[in-house]
Amino acid sequence: MLDLLIRNGWVVDGSGSARFRADVGVEGDRITDVGLLEGAKARRTIDAAGHVVTPGFVDMHSHADMTLPVLPTADSLMCQGITTAVVGQCGATPAPLRDETRAQVVAMMQSGTVPLPYDKWSTFGSFLDTLREIGVSLNVVPLVGLATVRSAVMAFSAQPANAEQVARMQAEVSEAMDAGAIGVSTGLIYPPGSYAGTEELVAVTRPAGERGGFYFSHIRGEGDTLLEAVSEAIHVGRETGAAVQISHYKAAGRENWSKSPHGLALIDQARAEGLDVTADMYPYLAGGVALVAVLPEWAQEGGKVAIRERLADPTARQKMTADMQTSGFFRIAEWDKVLLATEKKPEYEGRTVAELADAAKKSCFDWVFDTLLELDLDVAIVLFMMSEDNRRQELRHPAMMIGTDGAGIAIGGPLAKGLTHPRTYGTFPMVLGRYVRELGVVSLEEAVWKMTGFPAQKLRWRDRGLIRKGYRADLVVVNPNTVADLATYQAPHHYPAGIPHVIVNGVPVIRDGSHTQARPGRIL
Ligand SMILES: [Zn+2]
Q: H helices then E strands: how many in the chain?
């Protein structure tokens, strides 16, 4: 007798090939049968008539490690059909922590994020053990963040690492890899990750490359310097042997939109050279960052106290204003395209900097400096900076996968407050609803390949990512006619429609659209 039988559905098996009519039988955590299983008996049956049955989706860019210790059910991710999340992205991970620098690193990690029980772990392995002890709803593939590694070894020093510091960082990476990390991640626009030059990145990534590991990178520039930044990531892969994943690919800022196809061409060239270089994206036209990231890089140095001093100093404010208009991150956006997100000031939420500054009768720059001070830097922004035409081309690109760039949150409960980027709830359904059904940018089969079989191939899985007899039973039942993201920029806390069932390792986690509270996830 089967444990679970999904009958009457169309199977989109994750390989990219055309859908076919089949039932799917599950015993324990394995798919035991795919075919027309008439007369099969099962303890539980799902009628998937009018639906497609796909492998579980793989979120190639997840910050769920920043929420799983307090919300192991990861509702906003599960409801999208995500059964595996690659976590530990953008250089920042909750571990490793070392005694000498622990307080500083925890302070950095806590700013603008959910408070985690940092006293429960120190090494990367002990963090993974904590996740295992808690039990989580989805499978987790962990990376170790090089910003966390760097600050564990040398706090927030902006100096290049010396030989001894490089050796200690390499030892941290080796230890994390041996404890279960599949590779390293970088966030090269944020201090202290941005302090690492290319040579240092190559050196510190080497232990990952030697172990057949990965280099996931939030690259050094996504606007003016997109092409240089893509080249740097490829260079790190070529030098270290690490497989490269370029995170949340985008060309930010109208004047940089023409660069997107050139960045993709660099990826094509690297692949033609035989390097394993791929990318992921979320399908939205807006990105989201901490407001403090709009300051010139020099003004973000030295930690919170130093930043606050600059924000209060008239001379520094003048210099920041001048620099922000001529160089750096913020040239790419316009103030009327920047929405505020902060729990501390609900009246700011969903309004633009231009509106709020106007109402306060201040210049936008002064308003931003004052608001950062007022909210102790604890404020995020959503900024519209991408091109719809690019988004379509990027999604079609053969090296492109999907990543939410979100954490696991939930409607109701402590993580439901505040404006968040709607990608946290809607990334995968938006691809399937808007870009597959409404716009026909990619076929359903191709989209599912980018969400399942392709990441599985990249991550070198042997028994996940496809619907095949003997494979692990990570499965999603999707209604292709109704699947849709319902989270908006103004009201992000909405689960998507059209994804009634999500099964992880044979266990139903979403059943008839509701979370079962089951936590069958594993560290992969
Ligand atoms: Zn990032």
A: 16, 23
- 157 C-alpha to ligand 1 centroid (Å): 21
The alpha carbon of 272 and the centre of ligand 1 are apart by a number of angstroms equal to 26
Strands 286-290 and 277-281: unpaired
The CA 219 to ligand 1 mean position distance, Å, reads 8
Q: Using CA atoms, how far apart are residues 452 and 459, in angstroms rounded to an integer?
A: 11
**Interface predicted TM-score (ipTM):** 0.97
357-387 pLDDT, tens digit each = 999 999 999 999 999 999 988 888 888 889 9
SS3 assignment for 416-456: HCCCCCCHHHHHHHHHHHHHHHHCCCCCHHHHHHHHCHHHH
CA 187–ligand 1 middle distance (angstroms): 6
Give the distance (Å) from ligand 1 centre to CA of residue 283. 15
Instruction: Break the chain into its structural domains and give their ranges.
Output: 2-55+468-481+496-515, 57-285+386-458, 290-384
Cα(379)–Cα(292) distance, rounded to whole angstroms?
A: 8
Distance of CA 247 from the midpoint of ligand 1 (Å): 7
Q: What is the pLDDT of residues 408-442, one digit of tens each?
A: 888 887 777 666 889 999 999 999 999 999 999 99
Question: What's the gap in Å between 372 CA and the centre of ligand 1?
Answer: 21
362 CA distance to ligand 1 middle (Å): 31
- 192-225 as b/e: b if 16+ CB within 10 A: bbbbbeeebbbbbbbbbbebebbbbbbbbbbbbb
Which pair of tokens denotes residue 73? 């059910």
Range 106-122 burial, b when 16+ CB lie within 10 A, else e: bebbeebbeebebeebb
The protein residues having their C-beta less than 5 angstroms from ligand 1 (an ion) are 90, 218
Tell me the Ramachandran region of residue 519: left when phi exceeds 0, alpha when psi lies from -120 to 50, beta otherwise.
Answer: beta
Q: How far is the CA of 7 from the centre of ligand 1 (A)?
A: 40
Q: Does domain 57-285+386-458 have CATH number 3.90.1150.10?
A: no
Distance 279 CA to ligand 1 centre (A): 13
Give me Rg for the CA atoms of the chain: 22
Distance 438 CA to ligand 1 centre (A): 28
Domain 2-55+468-481+496-515 coded CATH 1.10.3660.10 = no
Cα-Cα-Cα-Cα torsion 410, 404, 81, 513, nearest 10 degrees, comes to 30
Tell me the one-letter amino acid at 362: K
Range list of β-strands (E), 166-207? 183-187
pLDDT mean over 71-78 = 96
Q: Which two three-digit tokens encode residue 22? A: 């089949």
Other beta carbons less than 10 A from residue 147's beta carbon: 27
Rounded distance from Cα 63 to ligand 1 centre (Å)? 9
